[in-house]
Amino acid sequence: MAVTIRIPTQLRQLTGGTGELNVEATTVASALAGLERAHQGFAERIFDADGQLRRFVNVFLADEDIRFLQGLDTPVADGQVISIVPAVAGG
After folding, report:
1. Using one digit for the tens of pLDDT, what is the confidence trace for 11-23?
2. Which of 21, 24, 30, 51 has a CA-to-CA distance to 81 between 20 and 30 Å?
3. R_g of the chain computed on alpha carbons
4. How far apart, in whole angstroms, are the C-alpha atoms of residue 21 and residue 82?
5. Which CATH architecture has domain 2-86?
6. Can you give the residue ranges of every domain in the chain?
7. What is the CA angle 34-18-88, rounded to 5?
8. 3-class SS at 63?
9. Residue from 22, 15, 35, 30 nearest 81 by CA
10. pLDDT tens digits, residue range 36-68?
11. How crowded is residue 19: how many other Cβ atoms within 10 Å of its Cβ?
């Protein structure tokens, strides 16, 4: 199934400036793996050493935080949109 991944501005240097990419996937994890295969360097930016999402990286599927769904195992349907959103902090 083809899903669209929205890339945040901070990571677009890894995609040559592209803000959206289409990948074939059945889960959020397989979509992110497809992103890494297409543009190496994403995995080290969004995953920790244990293969879990870094705590400052939020991933949304159709505007739902995957942490409140099935995490990386959340199934995706054809045409859905995955958004990678780095946490913003400041004061």
Report:
1. 999 999 999 999 9
2. 51
3. 12
4. 10
5. Roll (3.10)
6. 2-86
7. 85
8. coil
9. 22
10. 999 999 999 999 999 999 989 999 999 999 999
11. 12
